[in-house]
Design a protein that fits this description.
single chain, alpha+beta, Rossmann fold, six-stranded antiparallel β-sheet, five-stranded mixed β-sheet, flat
């Protein structure tokens, strides 16, 4: 092994353990910076010694105690620091249950040969006490640190405050974090490397298990490599975020700029639409003038035609009137021939006969419907009568059946139903049914139900109370049976003890610390216990340190009346024991704390006096008659007797409640039967009474309807008889008139009159039609005249408007120039050849303007940007102004300037980021990492070339991962003066910018973590072979030792990588239960390899010593634990400074035998 001067490193020379588990006070020397081999049986304390070294070097960071003993269990179930201090062993328990002061200390030798002490002190009062720790860092040897306080008897280790006073405040750290920080700065080059060192020590101790579960060398290699830390990457991430925020600012400006431009575009569109509407409005007026002139000419021609049509109608009317006059004269001549009016009478009678015949036919149809309705009503009445009988039968049967089970009579109801069923006159029987009054029956039911319901409720309450009492008794009996002895009948006593137990507060009731003197009579026990009182006896004695925690529980849970006494109060009290206390209590068996507490609570020198004949007590300043309760708390025997008595008493109380419960259940059973009968009766009443009432009503309604139908039938029959008589009389009369007409020879006269009358009617119709046609035509002429007149006025008005609009257009839009030419161009552009098309085009522009205006209103109220500008639109002038009155064109110019200036600032910041943070800091750091790992590969392979592990030798290959080759090349070749490499680096950062910025604080971006850049391979070769990659298949072919060698080469290599390339000054590696399955030859070569790379190993193993030709210096420590769990140690020192690094399969000549403790 390289010596400390060669390495410029420190090494551990001595270890001192005081009360560290089974190490009571042991000093172990590790000579010459050599390896330490710790040998012993399982459970002897080998791992405990490693834990002590680990604890001092890390202050407890990344520490798991006795991890090898856990094997595969959960970390939280392993050994605790409190177990080390209280010396807990599985088969003996806590050997120091009251706690102790513990020290683990290391003497470290620096490159200048001067010693330095690092130590951890710890203290607890009990196995459940909170841990109190402090650290020591001081120049000097272990012997110079006053761990033991010799100024007290018996001597004991110093607690933290005492140690700080003894060695000075600068060297004793009462806060373990301060110890760790100082340790990190002194030996490990800062906090990040301290954490990495702590992590690696933990890995080494558990390496056997880690390596056994890993078949992929690359993954094992990657997991062992040290973290690059976060301090170099956080500025990159923060700067990228800052740049991103700046770019976000530009993007925000551009977004606002686009927003403003969109508003300007909308404003221009609105202006164009408004201008188009004005121009097209002129076009509409021009077309309206032309169209109105054309329509006037058409209407004038139409009027000429209508005037000719009226002349033609007048001539036709004159001809029709002359023809009508001639026909009227002819009809008058015919009527003079029938002066008596027989023909008229015949016509009137014929009409009457026809009407009467039709009426009779309709009335016969109506009569048939009435008879059908009548028969249907009779059928319904028969059905409802049958239903009434059925309902009455069911009610009679049901009521008769239940009448035996209810506590009141319903005989009248049953009798009425029976009479109805046996009545011969249904109408009379129905009247009796209608007379049934159910209200008295309901009253009887209520009078029976209400008291019964109240009685049930009361008995159910009694039953529930009895059941609760029985359950309560059962619970109390269970608790008593599970108890070992009686407890005070003080509120919250048991609950307080349970809460204290959960909070790990050791509380002892006062009564448990008292024991009676053997000669105390039972009566005296009773009297004394009554004098003291249960409240005092139930007082809880706790440690002063637990007082605040205990009070918090009592206040939080509101445990009123609970008394607490602290040990500090008792320890500080020096009170003489009164004679009467000595008389009644056995002070040798009683707890002194309980006796002191009792004396303080009952301060009295005078002995209690008892008048046994009258049970009178005289004590202190009072007298009283005793209650005469039996003693139940003082003395274990009394508490057990009291427990038996309480159990018997509780069982008796339970029996009483069970008897009460049984009687109540019998009463309830009878009440439930009565309730069931009444419920059945109530259900029967709910169904029967309404059903009977509804059916009776339906029966009455049908009878009323039948009576009404009978009346309608009689009325209809009478009307039909009258019509039949009238028809018969008219038929006789018309026969007589026809006979007279035939005799007088005027039978065809009426036909002639009718013929002439018909012609006159036709002429009247033609005359009326022509008059109407003439009136309509005259009205049309008036309408045409009005249209022509109105059109003239309209043309004049539109012409004036057209002239006004063209003048306004010239003034408003001067860029138009000649209005007539502009209008003609517009007509041609939009193919507008009529006012209708122009109006449609105008509507389109108005709609466009409305949409544009709506969109503009929406945009200026946009939640994203409205608050920045507060734009207001002015329709007059079509302007858009912000809150300061600036027009939108001014704002656009301002934003163009702002964007340009901000982009220039970002370019400057980007250059600064690349130059300072990436180029100067990050690239340098990453280049060092790449160089360090490549250098490690070269150095390790040079050393491995000189060593054979059995027939095999090994070579390590570290190759860049394909996806990172380009980046590694860029980092290695990077030069601030090479634009190409600068561009490549910037591109890489830009590609992974999102991932870098998304990395959480305290984490490393995956793409910047050098551990992801390389793949690891181990090549195995025999003499004369080129070697092959040691993959899972090749590895499994070899023996267990062959498989394990590469694993240990790997961790030793990584240790070299971590320690050689950092400011870590202690090249220490801890192995717990290591090198199993590896033969001695290969194992010795591994030891030699560790020496080659300058490591100091601490190895816990049952049987592996350090007397090896390949090892320069070593200490083999033999550990044995005796039957009292005390540890015995014996060192063996080995020195071979001129060792053969390769060694042989065995020693060429056996070394001389040496004695334990001898230095060779």
């Amino acid at each position: 092994m390289y010596n400390s001067a060669e390495l410029n490193r420190f090494y551990i020379r001595k270890i001192r353990l005081i009360n560290f588990h089974n190490f009571t006070d042991d000093l172990i020397e590790v000579r010459d910076g050599g390896h330490l081999f710790i040998l012993g049986d399982n459970g002897s304390g080998k791992t405990t010694l490693l834990d002590a070294v680990h604890y001092v070097l890390t202050g407890g960071e990344c520490l798991e105690l006795n991890s090898a003993a856990r094997v595969t269990g959960n970390k939280t179930g392993g050994r605790r620091i409190q177990d080390i201090i209280t010396r807990f062993n599985i088969d003996s328990g806590h050997k120091n249950p009251e706690g102790a002061v513990t020290y683990a200390a290391l003497e470290i030798i620096g490159h200048n040969g001067k010693p330095f002490v690092a130590a951890i002190g710890m203290y607890v009062n009990s196995p459940t006490d909170n841990l109190n720790r402090w650290g020591i860092l001081k120049s000097g040897s272990l012997e110079e640190i006053p761990f033991i306080n010799d100024e007290v008897e018996p001597p004991r280790p110093r607690i933290g405050i005492e140690m700080k006073k003894a060695i000075g405040p600068s060297y004793c750290f009462l806060q373990i974090q301060s110890y760790q920080k100082t340790l990190a700065d002194r030996f490990f080059g800062g906090w990040e490397q301290f954490l990495e060192f702590s992590r690696f020590l933990k890995i080494g101790k558990a390496y056997r298990e880690i390596a056994a579960q890993t078949t992929d060398y690359h993954q094992l290699f990657k997991s062992l490599l040290p973290s690059p830390g976060t301090e170099k990457f956080e500025p990159v991430s923060e700067s990228l975020k800052s740049l991103d925020a700046s770019k976000g600012k530009v993007d925000n400006l551009k977004n606002k700029f686009r927003y403003i431009e969109s508003l300007a575009d909308l404003l221009n569109s609105i202006k164009y639409s408004k201008k188009s509407i004005s121009v097209i409005d002129c076009l509409v007026s021009e077309f309206l003038i032309k169209e109105a002139t054309t329509s006037t000419d058409l209407k004038k021609r139409e009027r000429e035609k209508l005037a000719g049509y009226i002349e033609s109608i007048n001539k036709t009317l004159a001809d029709l009137q002359a023809e009508k006059t001639n026909l009227e004269n002819l009809r008058d001549d015919y009527k003079q021939k029938d002066s008596s009016g027989l023909l008229r009478q015949e016509q009137e009678l014929a009409v009457s006969i026809k009407s009467l015949s039709e009426n009779l036919s309709a009335q016969e149809s109506e009569m048939a419907l009435l008879r059908e309705t009548h028969n249907e009503l009779l059928s319904q009445i028969e059905k409802i009568s049958a239903l009434l009988v059925s309902e009455a039968k069911k009610g009679f049967r049901d009521f008769n059946e239940i009448s035996q089970d209810i506590p009141f009579s319903i005989g009248d109801l049953i009798s009425l139903l029976n009479n109805f069923l046996h009545s011969e006159n249904i109408s009379e029987a129905l009247n009796e049914l209608k007379a049934i009054d159910f209200e008295p029956i309901r009253d009887l039911f209520s009078n029976a139900w209400n008291p019964m319901a109240s009685e049930i409720i009361n008995n159910e309450k009694i039953k529930k109370a009895a059941e609760e009492k029985v359950t309560e008794c059962d619970k109390k009996i269970d608790n008593l049976l599970n108890s070992e002895e009686a407890v005070p009948k003080v509120d919250y006593f048991s609950e307080t003890l349970e809460e204290f137990r959960k909070s790990m507060i050791a509380a002892k009731p006062l009564y448990r610390g008292l024991e009676w003197n053997p000669g105390t009579s039972p009566e005296e026990m009773n009297f004394i216990e009554e004098i003291i009182g249960e409240e005092i006896l139930a007082s809880l004695i706790i440690a002063e340190a637990d007082l605040d925690k205990a009070l918090d529980i009592i206040i939080k849970e509101d445990y009123s009346g609970i008394r607490i006494i602290t040990d500090k109060k008792l320890n500080s009290s020096n009170i003489p024991v009164p004679q009467w206390i000595k008389k009644y209590f056995n002070l040798s068996k009683s707890d002194p704390a309980s006796v002191k507490a009792l004396i303080i609570e009952l301060q009295s020198e005078n002995e209690p006096e008892f008048d046994l004949s009258n049970d009178i007590l005289s004590f202190r300043s009072h007298r009283r008659r005793l209650i005469l309760r039996e003693a139940s708390l003082i003395g274990e025997k009394n508490r057990k007797l009291e427990l038996k008595r309480q159990i018997a008493e509780m069982k008796s109380e339970r029996q009483n409640w069970m008897e009460s419960l049984s009687e109540t259940e019998k009463t309830l059973s009878k009440l439930y039967l009565r309730k069931s009968s009444l419920e059945k009766f109530a259900a029967l009443m709910r169904s029967f009474a309404p059903a009977l009432k509804n059916k009776l009503k339906e029966y009455e309604d049908l009878n009323r309807e039948l009576h009404y139908q009978n009346e309608k039938v009689a009325s209809k029959e009478e009307l039909m008889k009258q019509n039949a008589d009238k028809l018969k009389a008219d038929q006789l009369r018309i026969t007589e008139i026809k006979n007279i007409i035939s005799k007088e020879g005027i039978s065809d006269l009426q036909e002639k009159i009718n013929e002439v009358t018909g012609k006159i009617t036709l002429l009247d119709k033609s005359i009326t039609e022509n008059i109407s046609l003439r009136g309509k035509t005259e009205q049309k002429i008036e309408d045409v005249d009005e249209f022509i007149s109105g059109n003239g006025e309209k043309i004049a008005k539109i012409s004036a408007e057209f002239e006004s609009k063209t003048n306004e257009l010239k003034n408003k839009y001067s860029e138009i120039g000649n209005v007539s030419e502009y209008l003609n161009e517009l007509k041609s552009l939009h193919k507008a050849n009529s006012s209708g098309k122009c109006l449609a085009l105008c509507d389109k522009f108005k709609q466009d303007s409305l949409v544009q205006r709506t969109e503009l209103d929406s945009k200026i109220r946009d939640m994203t940007y409205s608050a920045d500008f507060s734009f207001t639109y002015y329709d007059e002038g079509c302007m858009l102004l912000d809150r300061t009155g600036r027009q939108i064109s001014e704002i656009i110019k301002q934003y163009e300037l702002d964007i340009r200036e901000t982009e220039e600032i970002i370019n400057d910041d980007t250059k600064k980021l690349f130059t300072k943070i990436i180029m100067d800091d990050l690239v340098k750091f990453l280049k060092e990492r790449i160089s360090h790992i490549e250098q490690m590969e070269r150095e390790i392979n040079l050393i491995l070339e000189k060593r054979m592990f059995g027939p095999n030798s090994y070579t390590m290959k570290i190759k860049p991962v394909e996806s990172y080759k380009g980046f590694i090349r860029t980092i290695k070749n990077f030069s601030p003066f090479n634009e190409e490499t600068k561009k490549e680096l910037l591109n890489f950062i830009e590609d992974f910018k999102a991932d870098i910025m998304a990395t959480e604080f305290g984490e490393i971006p995956e793409m910047l973590d050098y551990r992801n850049w390389f793949g690891f391979e181990m090549l195995v070769k025999t003499r004369g072979s080129e070697g092959q990659v040691l993959n899972k298949h090749i590895k499994n072919i070899g023996s267990g030792g062959e498989q394990a060698v590469p694993n240990y080469l790997l961790i030793l290599t990584i240790a070299h990588f971590i320690y050689q390339g950092s400011n870590i000054k202690l090249p220490v590696l801890l192995f717990d239960e290591a090198f199993y399955g590896i033969d001695s030859s290969r194992r010795n070569q591994l030891m030699g390899f560790a020496g080659d790379i300058g490591l100091q190993l601490f190895i816990s193993t049952p049987d592996q010593d350090g007397v090896k030709e390949e090892v320069m210096y070593s200490t083999s420590l033999f550990i044995k634990k005796d039957k009292n769990y005390n540890i015995l140690i014996q060192p063996l020192y080995w020195s071979n400074p001129d060792r053969n690094k390769q060694g042989t399969l065995g020693f060429e000549s056996e070394p001389e035998s040496i004695q334990l403790g001898e230095v060779r």
